[in-house]
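Section handout, structural biology tutorial.
Before the tutorial, make sure you can parse a SMILES string by hand: atoms, branches in parentheses, ring closures as digits. In the record below the ligand is pyridoxal-5'-phosphate, and the chain has 400 residues. In the tutorial you will relate the predicted structure tokens back to the input. Do not try to memorize them.
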Amino acid sequence: MNTIETEDSLGITFCNRQAVAIERGEGCKVWDEEGREYLDFTSGWGVTCLGHAHPVITAAIYAQAQKIIQNPNSGFTYSPARASLLSALSKVLPVNLSKVYFANSGAEANDAAIKLARKINGKSKIVSTLASFHGRTFNTLSISGGPDNTDQFLPHLDGNSFVPFGDLAALVKDVDEDTAAVILEPIQGEGGVRIPHENYLSAVASVCKEKGVLLIIDEIQTGFCRTGKFFAIEHSKESITPDIMTMGKGIAGGFPFAAFAISDAVDQRLSKGDHGGTFCGNPLACAVATAVVDHLRAENIAEKAKISGELLLRGLKEIAAKFPDFVGNIRGSGLLCAFELGSDEDVMRLSQAALARGLLVTPTRNKIVRLIPPLNVTESEIVDGLYLLESSLASVVPRH
Ligand SMILES: Cc1ncc(COP(=O)(O)O)c(C=O)c1O
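Predicted structure of the complex:
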């Protein structure tokens, strides 16, 4: 297919196509201004899926930057870089999601998904889950389940509701005649790597279908091999067919970029002009994302993340057994792992101790520490990271 045919068939034509100063990084390691080395088990909030300064990414940036960074009149012209990415994504997306549009951040992708769902259903209520996180725009704050996300910015958008994550009965009760869509993370990331029962997502999908509401799956943190599958919905026992799926973070390995994919049925209810944005689908970001997606597929990074994740989880459990009164609830899916401490203060003390020893971890709400290393982290880096974590824990656990 040539560029125009590819974009016409795969793209959504909304428009008429016209405290430590980290200085550098390589792979799983970063260095501060003084030249001190750290193991990065954060991936910059789960973004740098191929680690830092990966040659595939830097080469894609360089090559595309030499050609063109922003199309003249952005969305009003076709773009070979955008067409290449649409083709690459069509090979990994759930089969029912046939059209893709691009955004610049996860929040922007979710915001658009909510906006479009409201248009399609002519209703306004979005059912979300407690402890969820979907972004920081007004729409996405209003459907993010932590009070610290919403209550300080009142009034937020009215009429949405929240049910406990994993509680199907509560969701069934809450989805009513005013509901436009249900939005769900397949595994809650910012909520603390909360993994639902393997039947939960497919049951939610059935409820949405029965009640005629859209299912928006937020794969922003879990997508692009993070959990050991290309998308986390693939862990579900029965296959899931979301109406809209949002993507971000790892999609371009650290280059700011996001996307959402929609079914044909959703696409048919949308019109040109329903959505847009100056930088959406710019050729530079598209070229980087294409390089990342192709590399993830070619190197079977999902399988590698699964194996590395098992090693990390095993190590975490062994360490936790040495601090039974201090560390608990170890869980993970691929390289999205977490454990719990006694208090948020303990989490901060541990994170500081780890930083002092050269390990970066992600302190998370609700007494949780997240470990999100790059997907190509090596076995010896995992062993080193576990060693640093154990010594950090020993330094903050009272009886040590
Ligand atoms: C599941 C989920 N959705 C949406 C977002 C928001 O993405 P962004 O920070 O790119 O706006 C995040 C960010 O952490 C996330 O984890």
